[in-house]
From TrEMBL:
One protein family per Pfam: AMP-binding_C
Taxon lineage: Bacteria, Bacillati, Bacillota, Bacilli, Bacillales
Protein name: 2-succinylbenzoate--CoA ligase
CDD domains named among the record's database cross-references: OSB_CoA_lg (cd05912)
Enzymatic reactions: 2-succinylbenzoate + ATP + CoA = 2-succinylbenzoyl-CoA + AMP + diphosphate
Homology family: Belongs to the ATP-dependent AMP-binding enzyme family. MenE subfamily.
Keyword DNA-binding attached: no
């Protein structure tokens, strides 16, 4: 049986036409405004997109034009291939070719990249200005979305091997939004600050939740800790999605200020959060709810409920309704507190990777998706994420989780960021190396002694390197696989 749901933007504009749907800088648009603009974009794009089999690659920044384009492609029933604008032309070329995209829509800021891609692929490419110059044509408005239809394809960051195109259906996005609202609730004054890129699932999911919930998105072109703090102080924002690096920068800029009482939720994802950051937020009264999710689960799939936020500090929480999680270790369900691979199941979980049947066969086991992450569930059912399996360091037969060492280093006064990875060693197989960003003079011997007092000897970094910045992706997540490239920067003196 085909499951249908009313077209989200059209239904939202019908239900609450005068509610604010989008805020960008000093401009605002109601949901009625949005639908009119999107339908205009749709009618123009329809002149160059004649088949629903077309896949359109989008290389755009956080801007209202991007919002109109993304909604317009949904109105036309076109699968969206999101492109990370921080990637190289070679990386983008692979994704365009792999996804079989036949049209590229891009920002003028990325004209050089688009032109190089065009030379590689020969697919037509258009800016948002080009779209507005196209002839309007009559198109059939989609009254309903089919839940199992593909809405978007997002490529993984490629921690191992080539990036894989994650298929996301309308049903995945719908259930992700519903699961989040059943956990966090929905308030009449809710407004979500989106400072994460729209090409990332954390950003795009906010856009989808806006039209499903009927709440405004405050869109930032680029994350800025000072501006983000001011918006949270203003009282206009009730929810923000962030990762540890972003929150750390906001805390450093916040000083003695506090956020407005309207601000009720800082969703913190992107990997295990260092305890020092969580403790600072607790002291400042910032309502941090750790989450766990991925592109394959269409954003968060586990979130710490508000009533558990302090008692279960460090936990990602329990699965959002109606998702399920379990931990597998050597083919068996792990006992409480026993580490193993995190397995996911639910209507927000991807149906697979695009055009990779062999990979999909391995990724799914009896309906459960293998996340590739390591964690454990305590005796009350709360998930604790330890690390990516691919980031695990095995030293002399001992498992070392980089996130634990990173959190310890960030407890040291002056250390703003930390990244840990395994480096090959002839005696131990691998040993942990640490890379830090600090705002004051620190020495390797001081930090190593600090770690020795708090960590088992095999977990203490064998070398600590101070750098200007750590490698991060578009969503500010640490890319540990790139840390060895920083070794040329030398040791801390």
């Amino acid at each position: 049986m085909v499951e249908l749901i009313p077209n989200w933007l059209q239904q939202r504009a019908f239900l609450t036409p005068q509610r604010i749907g989008l805020v960008f800088n000093e401009q605002t648009w109601t949901f009625h405004d949005m639908l009119e603009i999107v339908n205009d974009y749709s009618s123009r794009l329809h002149s160059i997109i004649t088949s629903t089999d077309t896949k359109v690659a989008v290389l755009m920044k956080n801007h209202p034009d991007t919002v109109w384009v993304l909604h317009a492609l949904q109105q036309l029933g076109i699968e969206i291939v999101f492109l990370n604008n921080r990637l190289t032309v070679a990386e983008l070329h692979y994704q365009v070719k792999d996804s079989k995209a036949t049209i590229l829509l891009y920002d003028c800021d990325f004209r050089q990249t688009a032109e190089e891609l065009h030379r590689f692929t020969n697919i037509p490419f258009y800016t948002s200005e080009d779209i507005l110059g196209m002839k309007s044509t009559t198109f059939q408005i989609r009254e309903n979305f089919i839940l199992h239809d593909v809405c978007s394809i997002m490529y993984t960051s490629g921690t191992t091997g080539k990036p894989k195109g994650v298929i996301q259906t309308y049903g995945n996005h719908w259930w992700s939004a519903i699961g989040s609202s059943l956990n966090l609730g929905l308030h009449s004054n809710d407004a979500w600050l989106c400072s994460l890129p729209l090409y990332h699932i954390s950003g795009f999911s906010i856009l989808m939740r806006s039209v499903i919930y009927g709440i405004p998105v405050y869109l930032m072109e680029k994350f800025n800790p000072v501006i983000a703090n001011n918006m949270l102080i203003s009282g206009n924002i009730t929810i923000m999605s962030s990762v540890s690096n972003m929150l750390s920068r906001m805390l450093n800029e916040l000083g003695d200020n506090v956020y407005h009482e309207n601000f009720r939720c800082m969703l913190l994802g992107g990997g295990p959060a260092p305890y020092p950051i969580l403790q600072k937020c607790k002291e400042k009264g910032i309502p941090v709810f750790q989450t766990y999710g991925m592109t394959e689960s269409c954003s968060q799939i586990v979130t710490l409920a508000p009533e558990d936020s302090m008692e279960k500090l460090g936990s990602a929480g329990k699965p959002l309704f109606p998702a399920q999680i379990k931990i597998m270790n050597n083919g068996e369900i792990a006992a409480p507190f026993e580490a193993g691979e995190i397995m996911l199941k639910g209507p927000n979980v991807t149906q697979g990777y695009f055009n990779l049947p062999d990979v999909n066969e391995k990724a799914f086991q009896h309906g459960w998706f293998s996340s590739g992450d390591v964690g454990y569930i305590d005796d009350e059912g709360f998930l604790y994420v330890l690390d990516r399996r691919s980031d695990l360091i095995i030293s002399g037969g001992e498992n070392i989780y980089p996130a634990e060492i990173e959190a310890t280093l960030m407890e040291y006064d002056g250390v703003l960021e930390a990244g840990v990875t395994g480096i090959e060693d002839s005696e131990w197989g691998q040993v942990p190396y640490a890379f830090i960003v600090a705002d004051k003079q620190v020495t390797s011997s001081e930090l190593i002694q600090f770690c020795q007092e708090r960590l088992a000897s095999y977990k203490v970094p064998k070398k600590i390197i101070q750098v200007e910045e750590l490698p991060r992706n578009g969503a500010n997540k640490l890319q540990r696989r790139k840390l060895p490239q920083l070794l040329v920067d030398g040791d801390i003196s």
